[in-house]
Amino acid sequence: MPGRMQTPTAALLWIIRIGDVVGLRQPLQTTCAARIKPASLQNRFHAKTHYDRALRAFCCNKNIVYQSFWTLTADPQILAAPAVTVTAEKYGRTPAQVFFRYLTQSGTACLTGTSSPEHMAQDLAIFDFCLTAREGEAIGAQLK
Ligand SMILES: NC(=O)c1ccc[n+]([C@@H]2O[C@H](COP(=O)([O-])OP(=O)(O)OC[C@H]3O[C@@H](n4cnc5c(N)ncnc54)[C@H](OP(=O)(O)O)[C@@H]3O)[C@@H](O)[C@H]2O)c1
Questions:
Q1: Is residue 31 within 8 Å of residue 64, measured between CB atoms?
Q2: I want to staple 114 with a disulfide (CB 3.0 to 4.6 A). Which of 38, 53, 98, 119 is the partner?
């Protein structure tokens, strides 16, 4: 009808997430079968699953954002490793910040949970420094 306003076209965004995945089978099947592909995958990040190395590569290849949780709780040995503590000292950061920064630089989105305003501020303050390739390699070597 002339002069009548058009109804704006509704934009519908579907965000599908999968989580608690062991191995590659579920994401592979989900991704292949789904008309709308998963946008992200959330998993515990720990040594028992070899830090999901294969799964992270799969996600990267399929444009699925790999999100880690339990990252700090499960990995105290990484936070205590010299590769992390020495780097933290160099940048005037905490080991947790360096670990989150390493993972972020490597393409992992880190989920964090805290009841401390100080930790929350630290968790968010990882985007104003950058690890060198050598530092990244040294920290990455701890993920075994
Ligand atoms: N999709 C799922 O199935 C699933 C399952 C579990 C969790 N999650 C989500 O994942 C997120 C992460 O939770 P999470 O418990 O697994 O996280 P996390 O990486 O294990 O971190 C939480 C622990 O680290 C401490 N922490 C946080 N920031 C710190 C910092 N900058 N320095 C030192 N310690 C720090 C916290 O203690 P303070 O409180 O003392 O800071 C808490 O003990 C949450 O939002 C949660 O809802 C999702």
A1: yes
A2: 119
